[in-house]
Write a structure and sequence with these properties.
Number of strands: 30
Number of helices: 17
Distance between the termini: 44 Å
Largest sheet: 6 strands, mixed
Strand content: 15-25%
Length: 618
């Protein structure tokens, strides 16, 4: 997709995607004229496919280090597409993605320093668990200090010879009942030295004596080997000096000014082994490292996929519905496992799921999406306690929030059967503030429909113009959302234009005028409104003694469901299937009337036109 007139570095205007890539590469993808404080920042991200279908609209999110972000929403809401854009598996149509201060729109996936866990595990069937975890480490090069390894080997051999238990360790390294690897691996692992140093030690010891005589003869050969390697160490230093090469006290090559030299190199087999063992310890995969994926259970395969991500030690972990293929019990176990791993390694994680229970139990911050739009961003508690709109209220929570149709009149909401909740002055003020704001906002959106507008206009405002059609319609009548494109002209004028699927400005103007008329009517007279209450905030009238209770109402539950220490009372009330949650200590039976009350302070009020919540606490 061609990108026109995007200000890449604050000064240069580019005309094509190729020019943008070249310019970004030339400045190492660093931000220019930008101020991004967050670790990962998505700014005005849109995804439009070549056929004109738009999957993600105006996505904005700032992610801090060590956050566990969960994108949640129904199938087809754009959450996986957003994750794939962060991963570099999908192109970003417009907007900006920053990862650790680097503009990453055109950065290849391999250069973004991310690890991704897929829904299907994507393990290599012919490779062992060890090799599956090690694979991403083998194919990449890393920035590494340039050591003179001969010097390191000589020094570590001398240090190993001074270990009090080195004789017994050498014997144990050849004992197959104690060591399942190679002898040098046993020594290097136990003493945290290099494999090369352990190989040198074993070679020199066994050159001078046999294994069965080592206990009696080691003391005689020890000094000889130490002297030999001390001489090698000094001779090597003199050779490097004669060649004009410099090393510091840690035997790292330096330039003439003493700065350490770095090279691009692959990890050694020892470095790979250490990382794989570390990940296997975290994931309890030690006993399975020699097995093939077909010999593992679903949960074990998922842990291998996580291990492959962990060893990379990437800046960002991306997980695309990783638990959806597991059974219910295993899913619960793996949720806890992933949270534990996240806390242990301190990774910044973006996790995609359609299961709101996963989102509520795992996330530090939830992003609720619907039809490509972000509906709300907040902590699990914020999203549950203060949903932004009807969609969030219905989607988050199990069982879902009960939503009733009511009529607003002077601070009181009356349901169809005459049940009233009087909020008094609190609702009167909140109602006035909400509809004043909506009238002003809609009038401004109408003013923006001119094709050329001077001044600064936010993308969010343009997005609201675009979505006016869907907000203006009843939920059942809402049509598929068309595509809106917008761009920045040289004179800083912003315009909306007709796109592939035929965005109609006149239709949008009509919808906005219709919304404006409804808002003005709601501001001045009685009107329909939505009242929401969560099941746990409905109580049996005879046992609820708090002062914030509403008037009582009577239901006749048709199903009484026992759920642990609670009953779920299913009934029809005011035309909806209502659920109330009450303690199982009460005597409740199906088809017997029961008097209930609501926690008045926990009732939510929603505008019927926009679906947005009217905040009584503002």
């Amino acid at each position: 997709m061609e990108i026109k007139e995007e200000y890449v570095d604050g000064n240069t205007i580019v005309e094509s995607k190729e020019e943008a890539k070249a310019l970004l590469k030339s400045c190492n993808y660093k931000i220019r004229n930008g101020n991004v404080d967050s670790f990962v920042s998505l700014q005005g991200i849109n995804k439009v496919y070549p056929n004109g279908v738009q999957a993600v609209y105006d996505f904005n999110l700032d992610i801090n280090k060590n956050d566990f972000i969960v994108l949640v929403g129904p199938s087809g809401c754009g959450k996986s597409t957003t994750l794939r854009m962060v991963a570099g598996l999908e192109d970003i149509s417009s907007g900006y993605l920053y990862i650790d201060g680097v503009l990453s729109n055109y950065l290849p996936s391999k250069s973004r320093d991310i690890s991704m866990v897929f829904q299907s595990y994507a393990l290599y069937p012919q490779m062992s668990v060890y090799e599956n975890i090690a694979f991403p480490l083998r194919i990449r090069k890393y920035d590494k200090k340039k050591y003179d390894y001969e010097l390191v080997y000589y020094k570590e051999v001398i240090e190993l010879l001074n270990k009090e238990d080195i004789v017994q360790s050498i014997i144990n390294s050849y004992d197959k009942s104690l060591n399942f690897g190679k002898p040098y691996e046993y020594i290097s692992t136990k003493y945290n030295c290099l494999d090369g140093s352990a190989k040198y030690l074993l070679k020199e010891v066994l050159k001078l004596t046999k294994l069965e005589f080592i206990e009696t003869e080691f003391i005689n050969i020890k000094d000889s080997i130490k002297e030999q390697y001390s001489n090698k160490l000094e001779n090597r230093k003199e050779t490097l000096k004669a060649k004009g090469k410099f090393v510091n006290d840690d035997f790292v090559y330096t330039d003439i000014e003493g700065d350490e030299i770095y090279i691009k190199a692959k990890l050694t087999e020892q470095e790979i082994r250490n990382k794989v063992f570390e990940a296997a310890t975290i994931l309890d995969l030690g006993p399975y490292l020699d097995r093939l994926p077909k010999e593992l259970s679903g949960g074990q395969m998922q842990r291998v996929a996580l291990g492959r991500a962990i060893v990379r030690n990437a800046k960002v972990f991306l997980m695309d519905e990783p638990l959806s293929n597991l059974d219910a019990k295993l899913r619960v176990m793996m949720r806890s496992e992933i949270v534990r791993i996240h806390e242990q390694i301190g990774a910044t994680t973006i996790y995609v799921t359609h299961d709101q229970t996963e989102a509520m139990t795992m996330a530090t911050k939830i992003v609720v999406m619907s039809k490509g739009w972000v509906q709300q961003v907040g902590t699990p508690k914020e999203v549950y306690s203060k949903p932004n709109n009807l969609f969030v209220a219905k989607f988050i929570g199990s069982p879902a929030m009960n939503i009733f149709d009511g009529t607003y009149n002077d601070g009181t909401i009356t349901l169809d059967d005459g049940f009233k909740v009087d909020f008094g002055e609190k609702l009167i003020l909140a109602h006035k503030k909400f509809y004043t704001k909506k009238i002003e906002e809609t009038e401004r959106l109408l003013s923006l429909l001119d094709t050329d507008i001077e001044g600064e206009v936010t993308r969010t405002e343009l997005a609201k113009i675009f979505s006016a059609k869907s907000y203006a319609k009843n939920e059942k009548e809402a049509k598929d959302i068309d595509v809106l494109t917008y761009s920045k002209k040289k004179k800083k004028k912003i315009f909306a234009k007709k796109a592939v699927k035929g965005f109609d400005l006149e239709e949008t103007r009509s919808n906005l005028n219709e919304m404006l008329a409804k808002y003005k009517e709601a501001f001045t007279s009685s009107h329909t409104i939505k009242l929401g209450i969560r099941p746990e905030n409905i109580h049996v009238a005879s046992t609820y003694k708090e002062k914030d209770k509403s008037a009582s109402f009577i239901i006749e539950p048709n199903v009484v469901e026992l759920l642990g220490g609670e009953y779920l009372l299913h009934s029809t009330y005011n035309g909806i299937e209502m659920i109330a949650k009450v303690p199982a200590t009460l005597e409740v039976k199906a088809h017997e009337q029961i008097k209930l009350v609501m926690s008045k302070n926990l009732i939510h009020i929603f505008d019927e036109i926009s679906g947005e919540r009217i905040d009584l606490d503002e």
